[in-house]
Amino acid sequence: MVTRFAPSPTGYLHLGHVRSALQGWRAARRAGGRFLLRIEDIDPARCRPEYRAAIEEDLRALGLDWDGPVRVQSGHLAEYRRALDLLAGRGLLYPCFCTRAEIAREIARSGTAPHPARPGEAGPEGPVYPGTCRRLDPAERARRLAAGEPHALRLDMAAALATLDGPLSYEEQGRGRLRCDPARFGDVVLARKDAPASYHLCVTHDDALQGVTLVTRGEDLRAATDIHRLLQMLMGWPEPRYAHHPLLLGPDGKRLAKRDGAKPVRELLRDGLSPGAILALAEGTAPPA
Ligand code: GLU
Known about the structure:
This protein is α/β, with parallel strands linked by helices. It has helices at 15-31, 49-61, 77-89, 100-110, 138-146, 157-162, 199-209, 222-235, 265-270, 275-283, and strands at 2-5, 34-39, 71-72, 93-96, 122-123, 126-127, 152-155, 169-172, 176-179, 189-191, 214-218, 241-245.
């Protein structure tokens, strides 16, 4: 059993984090396995080193200890690049030069098309990309690349799905096998203009590299699992099991997150709450403070 907690250091540790971490930590400790800590700081605009330090400090304060060194994604960019190069070498990626505004204009102009492309329809990550740069004339594409025009790398979803032998699914703890439908994302971005690789690529790369066998995370990331299973199949990476936990809700029934006024763990500790009380809050076995 190898589990992990993989926060992005974009803020202080909060109860939702603690729930994911605790679930992974317990599963590993009960099975005599390993619990890993990984810092997913691939987005330079949103991540800050002081949050990383604070997250580690708060986990320690709660008694959630991890095994081995912390993997920090920003230190492994060449590894993600290699994975992208492999996909590109198989013709599964293309450069996308579009700005958000251009994408919105193209969606408005072209209307919607039939499934599975469904450009413009709301996918789990927003409107599905209309495929403008997938259809770019090769000479035009080469010219813009040679000119150093900033671009993202998108997965050619139809081409990627065509490489599969059958439908995709994953094992959700306690629920059996669940079917995936990655087509609803359209051509997802695997490397952004402003970040060298995307969450989807890095998380699946690292889960494979680190031998993670059970992924514990919030229900909000369930949809992303469809993309993750696709990437695992494309890259020949092993398939972990998944346990998506319900999101913590505040007394008003809304998602308990920092923006809703929920206090970060360090403030709860400062208020005098014991680590045990904070773990109980995170698991929903005590009413929110
Ligand atoms: N880094 C992601 C986040 O903080 C979570 C990654 C995962 O557990 O798959 O939202």
